[in-house]
Amino acid sequence: MQLIAPDILAEARGMTGAMAGTITVLGFALWLFGWRWHRFWVVAGITLAAGLIGLNAGRTTGGTQVMAIGILVAVSAGLLALELAKVLAFVAGGCGAWLAVQWVLPQAQELWAVFLCGGLFGLLLYRLWTMLLTSLMGVLLAGHAGTLLIEQFWGINAGDWVTQNVAALNGVVVGFVVLGVLIQAVSTRDPEQATELDKEDEESTEDEPPPHVPTKTAKPASGWKLLNSRKPT
Fold first, then answer.
1. Into how many domains does the chain fold?
2. Where in the sequence is the domain holding 160, given as residue range(s)?
3. pTM of the shown model
């Protein structure tokens, strides 16, 4: 299994350096801020995927308003993106559990219960799956685009180099994926914990007494000033 695929590099070999650099930066942002910006990534990804599906459906049906169909499908999916993400997490978890049980126990019965349990675990671990998916996609995008940049600037054959270093590149990709999940988990706080900490800070500030402001005391006047202040009779 090659995580950095030579076929993809061969297809994208004509890409300009500016486009490859933009994809590299996008992959790095997805790897670093996957969970913090997960609403943006989910909405953008589902909207783009739905638009492409709508365009392909319009072309296959032979309709004249292909662009209108694609835009309508993209807008509809974008409005329902956050809800669809939970549904997709449930379905993905259920299908993964179903396939795993079928692979381990081919004669197992009542697989609908396995599907429901896997879907529930998919919802409970939604944050972990989101971090893992965004980290993996970010590493793959940045890895492929970065390899194309190296090929353009250093003049090496990226396909042959990737084929010769499959094991090392797979290890690097897996390591960066795990590192991305850890960075996302550390850099983002849970919203419930954040609200609790804010409430505790507000309560502590309310319980603290007001700061003591020192009052200015009048200094006694010197005898010379008292003599000068008397008016002559």
1. 1
2. 6-190
3. 0.68
